Amino acid sequence: MQKGDREATSLLKTVTALALALDVKDHYTRCHSEAVSRLATQIARQLGLSDTQVEEVRLGSILHDIGKLGVPNSVLNKPSLLTPDEYDLMKSHTLLGDKILEPLKSEVVEGIRGIVRSHHEMVDGTGYPDGLKGENIPLGARIVAVAESFDNMVSGLPYRRGRSVEEAVAELRRCSGTQFDPKIVEAFVRLLETSGDPLRWSRTDILPSTEPR
Rounded CA gap, 89 and 71, in Å? Predict the structure, then answer.
């Protein structure tokens, strides 16, 4: 490993610690980053990616919401739907996250930055922040999009009760080809069919309440 890569890896560990601290800041997404990372890593393996690619997805998914450190708690923890202005502020976390990682000039980090910046892009081109379409969206970001959406659906939000695994899968399939990459959705479904309870191997025994608020 080159000296620059070693330094970037060391700094990346620090930034990763900050990302995990975000789960403490954001009451309603407790354990979210780790859960998404477990799900995304399993999907990457199901797709047959190399060990290097799997590790990139693992780290990128842990860091995917790092930009929310720059979003006020009043928006992160709002117990109701966001206003248009608040939603725009929430959306800015993709660019803020990319900016946080930008100083880590290393090949090790470039793929991770693509995940952080682009995990809210949609395959039909209607996502943000860049309106990327199809395979122009980094593969890792497309994987994280599926993992994060599933975790959000089954865990629930302050203003919405969590869905069952079956309901979440049905929603992923409904949005396959528009929001999500169809091959990643199907890889995830195959994974569910062969790996048992996804809540157990994503969040272990630590799940936020899904009771109505």
Answer: 7
Q: pLDDT class for 213, splitting at 50, 70, 90?
A: very low
pTM of the model as a whole:
0.85
Q: Taking the domains of the chain in order of start, what are their residue ranges?
A: 3-203
101's CB contacts (< 8 A; 6+ apart) are: 15, 63, 66, 109, 112, 113, 116
Residue 196 pairs in a beta bridge with none
- Asked if 12 and 108 touch (Cβ cutoff 8 Å), the reply is yes
Nearest to 139 by CA among 17, 22, 48: 48
Inter-residue contact 138 to 64 (CB < 8 Å): no
Residue entry with tokens 């682009």: 118
Architecture category of domain 3-203 in CATH: Orthogonal Bundle (1.10)
Terminal-residue alpha carbon distance, the chain: 49
What pLDDT digit, counting tens, does each position of 133-151 carry? Answer: 999 999 999 999 999 999 9
Separation of alpha carbons 63 and 57, rounded Å: 10
Residue-wise pLDDT tens digits, 49-90: 999 999 999 999 989 998 988 899 889 888 888 999 999 999
Residue 112 CA: distances (Å) to CA of 40, 79, 105, 129, 171: 13, 31, 12, 16, 27
